[in-house]
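It is worth pausing here to work through a concrete case rather than discussing structure prediction in the abstract. The textbook approach is simple: state the sequence, then state the predicted structure, then interpret. We follow exactly that order.
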Amino acid sequence: MAKDVGGLPYVGLALCYEELTIGRRFRTIGRTVTEADIVSVINRTGMAEVLFMNLDFLIRESDIKGRVAPGAFGHTFADGSPMQATMQHTGFAFLGTDLKTENPLFASDTIHVEVEVIEAQLSQSRRGPVRTRNRVVGRTAPWLSPTRRCAWSSVVAPVGPEA
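Step two, the predicted structure:
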C-alpha cells in the first residue's frame, strides 16, 4: 500500500515491476455483458455491422444465434479490467498486442480476465517492458487470448492533489 495522503491510506494502486515475476498469475473480478455494453461499443466504434445491429438478420440468416458483442468489446475488456487493478501509477506505455478471438461473446455472458506474466525485462532506469497473456474467460471460455506488451515502472508515482 502506498504512503498516506492527507492521513488516509492511498488504495487502488498498481503492482510495481518487481511484483510482476514471470509465471505470476491472477484474475480480475467478473462482470456480466449487457445489452447497453454492446450498444455502447457499436456507437463508439462505428461497428454498425448487421450482425450487431439487425436482430432479424441474427434470427434468420446468421450462423451465430443470440445477441453477440463486437470483438472490440472483448479486447478492451481484456486490457481494461486488469488495468484497473495492476497499472495505476506504474504502467505507463502500451507497446502492442497480439489478439486471438476463439469464441463469440454474448449479452448475459459473465466474464473475467485471467492474467499471466510471460516476459519481464528490467532496465537500468528501474522500468521495463512486461508482457502478459490476458484470457477473457466465461461461458464459452476461453473467449479471447491477447498477448499484451506494456512498459512498467518499479516505483509508484508521487502522490499529490493532481493524482
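Step three, interpretation. The helical segments are 35-45, 50-53, 55-60, 71-86. The beta strands are 2-5, 8-10, 25-27, 31-32, 91-98, 110-120, 127-137, 147-153.
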